[in-house]
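Handoff note, outgoing to incoming analyst
You'll be picking up this chain. Sequence as last confirmed:
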Amino acid sequence: MQRFSLHVLVLLIGSFIVIPAAAQWKWRDKNGAIQYSDLPPPPGVPAQDVLQRSSTGRQGVNAAVDPGAAAASAPKAGTDPELEARRRKAEQATTDKAKAEERVQAERIAAAKAENCGRAKSHMKSLEDGLRVVRTNASGEHEVLDDRGRAAEKARASEIISSDCR
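Most recent structure output, in case you need it:
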């Protein structure tokens, strides 16, 4: 019985060793000779000369080390419809995400401009109504605006209104 289980164990181990051999690439080189490898063919090999692709989806050892090498050794566009569909879907998702972020940023800017516009209009109304305007200077003291200060504040508020109120 032990001898039987030993044979079964050896067969199982042997089958697991042989499985990676099924992950082979097969292509015809520029001289017409058929080449076999566990790595994809070099970038210069036309798609129609690739006779068999790896079924495991393995792109080769260099793909894990150098992402640029994976892109260069990947099959040419249009050879695998499923791969192309996934690539297009990923590109579309990236584009949609970027557009959504741009919309959110534009909404934030619009909200900030609307708030600035409202404050500037309110400040301008206070200045035009002749109310006494008191502000705090850099040393923390209160100072009342005179006519020249009031004119400068009106000009500043007018600039904000013209840029943010559209």
